[in-house]
Write a structure and sequence with these properties.
Length: 223
Amino acid sequence: MRALIRFEAQNIASLPVDFRGGFIGFFKDIFGYKNYVNMEFKPYVFSVYFGKEANIVKRHIENVRFINLRVSSEDDELVKFICDRTIELSESGKSFRFGNGYFYAFSIELIEENIRNPFVALSPIVVSKDKNYLTPFDEGFEEALLESVEKRYEAIRGKKPNLKNFSFIPKAVKTESVLHYKGFIKCFRGEFLLEGNDDIIEFIYKNGLGYRTAQGFGFIETK
């Protein structure tokens, strides 16, 4: 299940380019800090869009009036809980702090799932091996990507996936360096194909691709 949560700023806001920590804070509010910390594995993925009016100035995202937060998980009840809890907190008068602004959730809707090639990354994709970040241009990338899918599948479903014939085929991807928790992460985004059995492709679509998916990376969508 996928949901789109729209926020409006009380006043025009500025966020750091290292903004993902603020949205991790949002999920701590949703689940409660202790519950969040005690979640052994976080089976969801999210992406953030600040709108066309926003622009980057040095290390800040300026002129932020609206935020679109997309959340996806194969656990429908989890997505429903996130939506319901956002509504509950909003109706109690709570605003959410992102950057130097206070935002109110004014719209929540479920998004239709459309699982087919080609796919695009709505948030950067992180793949790593032995503490080294890898992109499709690096040797050992596909092996590391397979390992990430296998680990995530086992953690969420409790069994090994069938990765026979699975492959990642880049079409128009580019490498990025993203500031996250005051350090830079080598990652990538763009258009690609996923080949393999339907179960694996559906799993990736719903739960994210690569690592750090609960930190705002790895959200993919049909082009």
